[in-house]
Every structure is written in C-alpha cells, then in structure tokens.
Amino acid sequence: MIVLSHDKQAPILGLPVRKAMSVKFEAFGDFETRVRDSFQRQKIMTTIGADLTRVNPGEVEIEMPFSPELTQQHGFLHAGIISTTLDSACGYAAYSVMPEDSAVLTIEFKVNLLSPGKGERFLFRGSVTKPGRTIMVADGQAFAFDAEGNARMIATMTGTMMVISGRGDLAG
C-alpha cells in the first residue's frame, strides 16, 4: 500500500500548478500495472493514438499527437476526442486509488472547452479531488502544445466515477 499526500499538483512541463485541498491517496498493490493493463484494453485510446505516459496514485497523464483524422470541420481537435480522452484520464486517476478487486465506471462528467484544440500534440491530466469508497470525483485538464513546446489549456473536466467493488476490471 502506498499513501501519498499532497496539497498541489506537481508542475508538468512548465504547466500551471493548480492548488487543491490536501488529499490523501491510498494505492493498493501494483496499481500502476493494473491501470496500464486496463488502458491497453481500451481500443478507443489505441484508435486515436493516445499513450498513458504517467501513473501516480490519484493522477494520470495521457499524451496524443495531432492527427488530421481527429479534427472537426475547422481543423481543430474534435470536442468528442477531447472529452473522451479527459474521461479516460479522470477515470484512470480514480482507478489508480481503488482497491485491487474494483472496476471503474464514469457516471457523470462536465467539460468546459476553453480554447480551440490546435497544436502539435496534446496532454490530458486527470486528478482525483475527492476519493471515496463508492464514488470519486476527479478533475481533468487538457493542454495543446505548439511546435515550440508552449502549452495552452484547451479544456477542463469534472467527473464522477463509480467504484464497482468485487468485480475486478469489468470485461465487456
């Protein structure tokens, strides 16, 4: 069991630091392998070219290169792709602190699209803000990076995740 307590998110690649309440995370067993194995079974992430690049208790990051196949009519990353990837980031952040015999399902989320999805690559971060035995709340942030590596926040998400106890990682 790993216990991690922090009162702010670590800055990633010079991105803004978001202050939060102090939250204690309890990770069970080999949480990182469990999260990565589940992510590999998510075919949509493979389809859009997304990679799980960081897994910590209560926080994950997913990165994805720009692809013209994932754009809307104006050439920006489609809002559905942004929402899908933020949902995965928030879900896996929650899953990382669930007991080993649990599965995760999203039961609600809200996305704010802040800026057009225009960039060379994208980073999606999910962080647990309220852990719980049956319900967890997570926040997500999506960033677009230009060719010089400058980041711009393009979306945020707040999601509610359900802990499905005693079911392992549910199969479809």
Report on this structure.
The protein is α+β, with helices and mostly antiparallel strands and 172 residues long. It has a single domain (22-164), classed as Hotdog Thioesterase (Thiol Ester Dehydrase, Chain A). It has helices at residues 31-40, 43-47, 79-95; strands at residues 2-8, 19-27, 51-56, 59-65, 103-113, 121-130, 135-145, 151-164. The strands form two sheets. It has a six-stranded antiparallel beta sheet with strand order 3-4-6-7-8-5, covered by helices on one side. A two-stranded antiparallel sheet has the order 1-2. The longest helix has 17 residues, at 79-95. The radius of gyration is 15 Å and the shape is elongated. The two termini are 29 Å apart. Mean pLDDT is 88; it is low at 1-11.
Summarize the structure.
By secondary structure, the chain is an alpha+beta fold. It has three helices and eight strands.
